From TrEMBL:
<dbReference type="InterPro" id="IPR010499">
    <property type="entry name" value="AraC_E-bd"/>
</dbReference>
<keyword id="KW-0804">Transcription</keyword>
<dbReference type="InterPro" id="IPR011256">
    <property type="entry name" value="Reg_factor_effector_dom_sf"/>
</dbReference>
<feature type="domain" description="HTH araC/xylS-type">
    <location>
        <begin position="8"/>
        <end position="106"/>
    </location>
</feature>
<keyword id="KW-0238">DNA-binding</keyword>
<protein>
    <submittedName>
        <fullName>AraC family transcriptional regulator</fullName>
    </submittedName>
</protein>
<dbReference type="InterPro" id="IPR029441">
    <property type="entry name" value="Cass2"/>
</dbReference>
<dbReference type="Pfam" id="PF14526">
    <property type="entry name" value="Cass2"/>
</dbReference>
<dbReference type="Pfam" id="PF12833">
    <property type="entry name" value="HTH_18"/>
</dbReference>
<dbReference type="InterPro" id="IPR020449">
    <property type="entry name" value="Tscrpt_reg_AraC-type_HTH"/>
</dbReference>
<keyword id="KW-0805">Transcription regulation</keyword>
<dbReference type="InterPro" id="IPR050959">
    <property type="entry name" value="MarA-like"/>
</dbReference>
<dbReference type="InterPro" id="IPR009057">
    <property type="entry name" value="Homeodomain-like_sf"/>
</dbReference>
<dbReference type="InterPro" id="IPR018062">
    <property type="entry name" value="HTH_AraC-typ_CS"/>
</dbReference>
<dbReference type="InterPro" id="IPR018060">
    <property type="entry name" value="HTH_AraC"/>
</dbReference>
């Protein structure tokens, strides 16, 4: 089973258990992915989080049931995972623009949200710039923070971490420390457990780190290195989407499961000609 088929299997599992108390561990397990890699892959391919997908699908089914049955609003609220009618009404209005009562009266339009079917492009409209390289292990000196994967808190915390590093001078220190093994400042995701990841902002450096910085060992790996052209953050986000929707399905490679890197230069992040890189360990 290919990795894209694995993700579809996980989506089918969600659909079959929409009324159950779904855990991200059980969903990711259907795809044989870690929680972190499943969350990232799902969000990159669909532009929404797993939690948002489940919520939207439940509210779409709830709207259909309101219009097609005589079940009480409170019973439908409980059925689709809401503890109170007030919480259900608030979520329902946010998605559909009307209250459950208005929906039952056919007052206003509802927002349909259909079951996902993952599709990929096996032939990209534009060629992707990449190379395969093999590297011995190396060291990264930097700052580390642990982020919870619960409610995808990492997606909020990591940008805040970058803002702090860029504003307090840490980024300038890292550029000065760089030993040239990989030129630039790195963002490194380390898949730690089913509930959290370690995220590093650092640079390649073989020595005793200055106060406040720690050392991360990156193992020997075969890497797919992708060139990214354009301003941040859009260019980086678009590159990840093309990698997962076009390159992985047609390349024959799989993610090796070890830390992956984003590589940033000292150039203006808004520069339309900015060059950055994505390093993915593959097998």
């Amino acid at each position: 089973m290919t990795w894209i088929e694995s993700i579809q299997t996980a989506i089918d599992f969600i659909e079959e258990h929409l009324l159950d108390d779904l855990s991200i561990e059980s969903i990711a397990g259907q795809a044989n992915f870690s929680v972190f890699h499943f969350q990232r892959t799902f969000t990159i391919l669909t532009d929404i989080s797993i939690g948002d997908y489940i919520r939207r699908r439940r509210l779409a089914l709830a709207a259909h049931e309101l219009m097609e049955t005589s079940a009480k609003v409170i019973d439908i609220a409980y059925k689709y995972g809401y503890d109170t009618p007030e919480a259900f009404t608030k979520a329902f209005r946010r998605q559909h623009g009307v209250t459950p009562s208005d929906a039952r009266k056919n007052s206003g339009k509802l927002t349909s949200y259909n079951r996902l079917v993952i599709q990929v492009n096996l032939k990209g409209a534009e060629p992707m710039e990449y190379k395969i390289v093999e590297r011995e292990g190396f060291k990264v000196a930097g700052m580390k923070r642990e982020f919870s994967l619960v409610n995808e808190e990492n997606n909020k915390g990591i940008p805040e971490m970058w803002e702090k590093v860029n504003s307090d001078g840490t980024d300038e220190l890292l550029f000065r420390l760089n030993d040239g093994a990989i030129e630039g400042v790195l963002g490194v995701c380390v898949d730690k457990s089913s509930h959290s990841i370690d995220y590093w902002i650092g640079t390649t450096y073989d020595g005793s780190p200055p106060d406040g910085l720690s050392i991360l060992d990156i193992p020997s790996s075969k890497w797919a290195v992708f060139g990214v052209h354009g301003p941040m953050p859009d260019a980086m986000q678009n590159a990840w989407k093309k990698i997962f929707s076009e390159w992985f399905p047609s390349s024959g490679y799989q993610h090796a499961g070890t830390p992956e890197l984003e590589v940033y230069s000292e150039e203006d992040p808004a520069d339309p000609d900015l060059y950055s890189e994505i390093w993915i360990p593959v097998k």
